[in-house]
Every structure is written in C-alpha cells, then in structure tokens.
Design a protein that fits this description.
It is a single chain. This protein is α+β, with helices and mostly antiparallel strands. Strands 1, 2, 3, 4, 5, 6, 7, 8, 9, 10 and 11 form an eleven-stranded mixed sheet that branches. The longest helix is centred in the last third of the chain and has 25 residues.
Length: 405
C-alpha cells in the first residue's frame, strides 16, 4: 500500500485515503479500508467480501469482514470527511441537496431494516433514505439513513440481534430527511436548494422546515395537492396557452430533457412572510411534449429574483440522485453487501459512497467545466384570474403584448 502512485488517478485516490485515514487508530483497519475501497472501484463482478478479498490478495475474507463488523471506527466520521471532500471538489454556492429513498432487495427477516412489503421497484419497502449533492461540476451521494419500520423498532429483541442501537427509535422517512438536511447545513457543503419527490414535497411541515432554514426548494407534489385551497392540477389547468414554455431541465442519457413548463407566483402568506418577504413561492407543472396528458406538478420557494428557468433547472436536478444510485450500484457495489447488522450496513454503504464520490470528482477533473447562460423571462399578471397568481410568460410574448396595446 506504500507504492508510489503510478498515475494521476492513483495519486488522487491516495490523497482521498489520506483525508480519511486519520479516522482509523490502528494500521490494520486503515489498510483494510483502502483494500475495500480499491476493490469497490475495481472491475470485480460481484463485490462481496470474498471477491474483494481475492482482488486485494487476501487468502480469506476474514479481514474485510472484520472491518465491517468488529473494527473500531465510526462510519459517520467517514461520512463527514466525504462531505468535506465533495464540498472541496464539487461545491458551488448554488449547490442542490437532493433527497430520495431507494430499496435494496435482501432475503430473510434478520437483515436490519428489511420488511416484506410492496414497493414500486423491488416488491419490498424502500428502506434507505439518501442525500445527493449536485452542482454544475458534478454530483455524488453524501449521506444515508437506514429506515426502520415499526415492525423493527417495536421489537426490542429483533433490534438487539441486528445490533441496532437502543436509542434508535422509530423515525419517518421525512424525519430522516430533515436530519440529513441539518447535517448538510452543518457541513462544509454549500447548499442553496433542496429537491425531492412527492413523498417529501407534499409534506407542508417539511417545506416549512426548509424555509425556516433559509433554503430554497423545488419539490414534486401529487396532482391532488391543495394550493391555498384548490387542487394544483385544477389551477394549472387555468394557465393561459402562452404561459407554457419549452425548456430543457438538463441533459439525460439521450440528450437534453425538453418539456413544456408553466409556472405561477403564489400570493404571499402574511403569517409566514410578514410585510417584507425574503422569498417567493411558486407552483409549476411539467408537460410531456409527445404525451401532453402526462403532467408532473411541483411547489417551490425561491429567491425573489428567481425565474422559471431557475426553477426548471432545480427540478431537473432531482434526476441526479437516480444517476448516483445507478452508477454507485453498477460501479461501486452499493447494493452488493452481505452484512445483516446495523453497523455493517452503514460501514459498507459509507465506503461505497466514498468510492462513488471519488469517481465523481475524478470525472469532474477530467472534463471541461462550463455552463451556458439561460433565458430570464419576465412575468405577466392575468387580468381575469380565478386564482391570484402571476403566470410566467416568455419575453417575446410580453413584447408583442406591449406593442399591440
């Protein structure tokens, strides 16, 4: 492990190991951590302890299994270093924290957090809540929490067998998300925005928490979401045709993700905003170009000078965490753990996140940085609205209206 790095890639990995190495008081677990992360970054087909040990040249997986199960080190300390590493290399003032949950399919009933229950992707509960950090420089996973349903927290013996701390009580996924937001704010990560899907966006207390924390957000909501009384789908249905603007919300695997978007500024709420609001609330909708009946809805809180283009950009950032999940699974073995206990889960997931963050930083260093400036449309207030909102219209539409009056 003391070899001179043979490439720039190797040098960068060594620098990362130096940043986290002080978290291990003894040399053996420090070396095993390095072997484990190198194995996660390797082309090994199945990244379990046996194959990672074989890649590292170990005769048995005992050392790596000991690293996950019994060594004295704190996964949360590595997570904190990971957040500092991502902030150093990917951080910008417009950083977006993205919250989402996912599920790792595991058999049996003894793996911490596992519960046999339906979920849309795996047929089981999505039992992990993650936070990703995204900027124009790149994106990476930066935090994680294992969701424990009441079938676990109400069963003390089951929790003891899985080595779940006695103080770990039941917490909803939104509670876990709130905890991760607070940790991000206390970390070196510069966070300005939060993005999340409808499971979090429909929670008014979570949205209010973000506003109280001084964070802007764009979060999906269901079509039945009430906005000052009426449903959001009914309100969006009142948008004038010229309010819909065709914009890209970011690049995907097949190029720019282009949709039709409509947005409206919402009235202020004096109880929350006072006489001099510091932010502006919005509702917006995304409509498929090829399937106009397919709409998605969002609520947002943004700086007073924010435009529709800004909101669309943040809404598009939500897909970044899906990209993180996919690449962390495919490249870093995020879901290929064989541990069953609470501590082992956090240790494997954290080291896999560390490996994934390294790849994200390496990719950022390898490509040219830059971002094209977007358009900044102004607003127009409908003279006969059924709901007092301010629809956002393209500049050319407003100029036409001004010259024809």
């Amino acid at each position: 492990m003391d070899d001179v790095p043979a490439s720039e890639w190797e040098q960068e990995l060594e620098e990362l190991f130096l940043e986290v190495g002080h978290r291990f008081s003894r040399v053996e677990p420090r070396r095993r951590m390095r072997d484990y992360v190198r194995g996660l970054l390797s082309p090994v087909g199945r990244k379990n302890s046996w194959q990672l040990a074989e890649f590292a040249g170990h005769s048995t997986p005992d050392g790596l299994q000991h690293l996950l199960a019994k060594s004295r080190w704190e996964a949360d300390d590595i997570r904190d270093d990971l957040q500092g590493y991502v902030a150093k290399h990917l951080g910008t003032d417009e950083g977006v924290l993205i919250i989402d949950d996912t599920g790792f399919v595991k058999k049996g009933i003894t793996s911490a957090g596992v519960q046999r229950q339906y979920s849309g992707t795996a047929g089981r509960t999505e039992n992990c809540v993650f936070a990703a950090y995204a900027t124009t420089l790149g994106h990476a996973l930066v935090d994680r929490e294992l969701y424990l349903p009441k079938s676990w927290t109400d069963d003390a013996e089951r929790c003891r067998a899985a080595k779940i701390p006695s103080e770990r009580g039941f917490a909803t996924k939104n509670d876990l998300a709130r905890t991760m937001v607070l940790r991000a704010l206390a970390s070196p990560l510069p966070v300005a925005w939060v993005a999340a899907d409808a499971a979090y966006g429909q929670d008014s207390r979570f949205r209010r928490f973000l506003e109280d924390a001084g964070l802007s957000y764009v979060m999906a909501v269901p079509k039945s979401q009430q906005v000052h009384g009426p449903r959001i789908d009914h309100l969006i249905g009142q948008a004038p045709p010229e309010a819909w603007q065709r914009l890209s919300c970011g690049d995907g695997a097949k190029g720019p993700r282009i949709y039709d978007w409509a947005a409206a500024r919402l009235p202020t709420v004096w109880e929350f905003d006072g006489d001099e609001p510091t932010c502006q609330r919005w509702m917006l909708a995304r409509r498929s170009i090829t399937k106009p009946d397919e709409l998605a809805y969002f609520l947002a809180s943004a700086p007073l000078q924010a435009t529709l283009a800004d909101l669309v950009r943040i809404a598009g950032c939500r897909w970044k965490i899906e990209e993180c999940f996919q690449s962390a699974r495919n490249e870093c073995g995020l879901d290929q753990y064989e541990v069953r206990r609470y501590t082992g889960w956090h240790r494997h997931i954290t080291l896999a996140m560390l490996a994934h963050a390294f790849l994200a930083v390496a990719a950022a260093h390898a490509r040219e940085k830059g971002e094209a400036s977007g358009t900044r449309p102004t607003s127009w207030i409908s003279h006969q609205p059924r709901f007092a909102v301010c629809w956002q219209l393209p500049t050319e539409t407003l100029q036409h209206r001004a010259t024809t009056r």
